[in-house]
Amino acid sequence: MDVLGAWRAFVNVSERGSFTEGAAATRVPQSVASRRIAALEKHLGEPLFDRSTRGAMLTQFGRDMLPSAKRLVRLAESMEEEAERAKLRPFRLAVPDICTVRDLARLDAEARRDGVHLDFHAAAPAGRAELVRSREVRAALTAVPPSDATWSVPLGLAGAADPLAETVYVETLRAGRAAQASRRSRIWIQPEDEVPHIRDRLFRVRDAAGLQPAQVAVAATLTAATAEVLGSADLLLCSAKQAEELGLHWRPVGEIDLVRGFGVSAAAGDDAVRVRTRLWRPVARCLGARDQDDLGVRERDEGAS
């Protein structure tokens, strides 16, 4: 028995004094309203309406039950309204601060079609992890090693001039003995890639290739790094998508495969699963991630949940 539906029909019929009008107010056929009330009476063991009179006249038992029934119906309606508000309440998501306004807007638009209203908080990798720990956001796209990644973004080196070669080797930046330090090209690491599984591996390649320590540097901001590259022969460690947006020429790194790995961290496990599964494709486009079998990702996450 639909207990709530039965009490709602009871309240509407009693207030209108008519089974026909009460059923209409309940938005069900009269026959359905009558069956629900009859089932309720059977469940309670007492009649709610006097069937021997015309119209819908309450019995004494019905009059005694009416105040509580009204409270129940009002509470149910209030809960339904709160549920609708909760669905529209923004889902605060920490995202990389390299995401463009256009990409975030597209992500938000696609999420809304799936019933999720996003509220973005852009931050660097360490900041995103802290936002989750402090519960200032419901979830965050966090930097993780490629082996643990839900989304993977290959990195390469990009410069203002077209290098012509299909691959850029770090060792080609090694200066000759007569070269001045001021003329040595540098590789700039942006804040998003200042994580051990990217930064430290590139430092090891730098040392193995015989470059000076200063030739691989971490920039304070992506803007500062891009400015250095645009005005010199320096190179920026970035994704192909970023290079295109910045008007730079991108090539993979010859000595090493560097990949940005992104996962989802959330205080509540179902929030993490929601982002990984329902928003996998729009997040992938926003990050510039390479194509993956998202079905496999979804099945893995759903099995873990």
Automatic annotation (TrEMBL):
Gene3D superfamilies xref list: Winged helix-like DNA-binding domain superfamily/Winged helix DNA-binding domain (1.10.10.10)
Alphabetically ordered keywords of this record: DNA-binding, Transcription, Transcription regulation
Keyword Transcription: yes
Keyword Transcription listed: yes
Stored PROSITE patterns: HTH_LYSR (PS50931)
Residues of the HTH lysR-type domain: 1-59
A family per Pfam: HTH_1
Family: Belongs to the LysR transcriptional regulatory family.
PANTHER family: LYSR SUBSTRATE-BINDING, TRANSCRIPTIONAL DUAL REGULATOR HCAR-RELATED
Annotated protein name in UniProt: LysR family transcriptional regulator
